[in-house]
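Q: Convert this sequence to structure tokens.
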Amino acid sequence: MFLRRINVKFTLVLVGAFLLGAGLLYALTVFSLVRSLRQEDHTALRVRLLQYWAQYELDGLSAVVQRVQDERFLPGDPLHFVRIADSGNRTRVFRAAAEFAPLERELASSDRVRGLESIEELQAPGYAVPIEVAALRLGDGVVLQVGSGTENRIRVLGVISRNFMLSAILIVVVSALAGIALTARMLRPLERLNTAVRAIIDTGNISGRIETRADGDELDALSASFNEMLERIERLVGGMKATLDTVAHDFRTPLTRLRGIAEVALRGPQDAERYREALSDCLEEAEQMVRLLNAIMDISEVEAGVMKLELEPTDLAGLAAEVVELYRYAAEEREIVLRVTVGAADAGSGATTAPLDRARFRQAIANLLDNAVKYGSPGGTVAVTVGMARPAAAAERSSAATPAGTASERSRLVLEVLDDGIGIPANEVPHIWERLYRGSEVRYTRGLGLGLSLVHAIVAAHGGSVAVESTPGVGSRFRIELPTAGEPSSAGS
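A:
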């Protein structure tokens, strides 16, 4: 269990990484140093042989023999022995320290005489380290051999190894302390995050936030993202609570009516016409509740990407006119004038036709008109405009080069709903498309906060976009843009 902790794992990884790096550095150092020392020793042997050879060439073999006999092998001297043999490999002169005396027999029994470039390695009986031997054949078959031990190299390697062991211990201690300190600092935000999550689980209170640092690193970004998530969850939960209260109120009213209608019908005289009228009223109230539930389900389908549309060429201007007619009576009650306008260049040309799900899009237009009439100023005006929005360059060329409304202009079909009502505060505009959102000005009016969410969902399912421009106290302009028949659409079928 202890080894599963992140700080332990990180510390072990850090220690292992430092040790691995130190081991590689040690191996590289030893390899380079031993190679360099070997080359120096071999060079010293070759130089000594060449010195003997030069004297042989100048003064003859007797001078070389005399020099060898005069050699003194002192402690620490890199040269350990000198041997001169005749052509039959019989020893004529052998000068060496006492411990190398047995080596003479080894050399005499071997018939191999290597040159300057190839140095032979021998092991003297009773001597701990190998002996390296270089040889040179002189005139008349005379062989000259010199040798030296490798204890200097081994001693240097031992010193390096001891230093490495001490360094490794120091590395382990330092890296472990560094790992503990780093993990403690790095895991502090995660510990605060875990504490906050545990507090939410234990208390159910999501109002707490994690303290963030000013470092701006990934863990700080994680804390900030978690705080943002908590804020969204808090807003969502608050909105759901408020919506549930509203839903309960809105459903209680039709349910109370249903019960009242049924009770009145049952207490009254048994009359088929009265029963038929009561059932008709109950059906109307039930349909209202079904519409509310269907709106929530429709939004969920779009968010899940499974909404199916039955697309057919539809005249958007005609569809808007039909919806306006449905709302004229409600508008007249508030003395609001409804107008439908089609762009002059598009009227009667079929340019306002697009592949739409007629029933779904009628619902979207109806929600926009319902809001416009509900929150419009009494005695004011609600204008619905349908037309084509073309790029400026395409509009300039349309009269001379390209017919208006063709796909090559990449035009978009536009529907706008303009009212002169209460407007929307600027800080609430980004949230009006959220499901169950209720603005501060309309929070206590009848509704569920699903209308604009459903509009956004239906338009998005048709591959279009919807936006709003609003000024409190002046009015709002909702603008829907749709792809025409000549443009690709993301709508399902």
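The chain has three domains: 2-155, 218-303, 307-483.
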